[in-house]
Amino acid sequence: MLLVHITLLMSLTLPVLANAQLQHLDIKVLAVLAHDNKAFTQGLLFDEGYLYESTGLYGQSSLRKMDAKTGKVLLHRPLARNYFGEGLAQVGEQLIQLTWQEGKALVYDKSNFNLQRVVSYQGEGWGLCYDGEQLWMSDGSDQLQRRDRQSFSLKDTLSITLKGEPLAQLNELACVEGDIYANIWHDQRIVRINSHSGEVEAIIDASTLIAASERSSDPEAVLNGIAYDATEQVFYITGKLWPKIFKVQWQASAELDN
User: Fold this and answer.
1) Which of 245, 216, 21, 229 is CA-nearest to residue 237?
2) 221: number of CA atoms within 13 Å, CB side?
3) Across all residues in the chain, what is the average pLDDT?
4) Domain count of the chain?
5) Over the stretch 94-117, which tens digit does the pLDDT of each residue have?
6) Residue 183 belongs to domain with CATH number
7) How far does the signal peptide extend, from start to end residue (predicted)?
8) What is the Cα–Cα distance from 80 to 78, expressed in whole angstroms?
9) pLDDT digits (tens, 9 = 90+) for 157-201
10) Does a structural domain hold residue 81?
11) What are the tens digits of pLDDT across the range 207-223?
12) pTM (predicted TM-score)
């Protein structure tokens, strides 16, 4: 009887474990756009043929609208010198921009970048994305914060793990079809996170983009910036101080999980 129970348990758990195998992906470049190499990219999103970008650094932070075919900046709003711009998300016809240590989220009219309101929050702001129902925010830890799209109040947190271990330094975020993509600060990998379990289900190797980026020698010229075009099913990837934005798709990697 014990053998029967063990056999039954194995038959139930083995398919689940097989489905949970970590996926490895590479990047296929479809096009390359120009990008301001002075833009310290902290947040990137795509909407209706345009890229919207949040840039950081005190005295240089901004909100930008760019042509997604050329990378040309069409609209630019500088932030106050005491604000360090961070993650960016779109909720309806509004853009929400985080600040790093100022505890302020700036809410704009997407059409003209007019500031509509300022919302306060506790802790640091790093990345931000909107999944159609709620906002997800990173603060550089292994926790993602789930926030109300209107009040920005904190609902709860989700612990992020890779192979069962906490994964910290989560930075720029992109909410895509129920999953969350994240840059890891000072890392060449992008990860795809299950928004229910918090487990990393895929790793995308972006080392080829870093090599082709023609970035400066600045140690902070790191991979950061993920935007998704649902119509074409393509991603736009860039980094801080990079002179290029890459339009890409994922493809299967020869690398095996171990």
Assistant:
1) 245
2) 16
3) 91
4) 1
5) 999 999 999 999 999 999 999 999
6) 2.120.10.30
7) 1-20
8) 7
9) 999 999 999 999 999 999 999 999 999 999 999 999 999 999 999
10) yes
11) 999 999 999 999 999 99
12) 0.90
Q: Is residue 145 situated within a structural domain?
A: yes
**Residue 20 pLDDT exceeds 70:** no
- Per the structure block, which two tokens stand in for 112? 């003209």
Q: Report if residue 257 sits inside a domain.
A: no
Helix or strand (DSSP H, E) at 79: none
Are 169 and 184 contacting, i.e. CB atoms less than 8 angstroms apart? yes
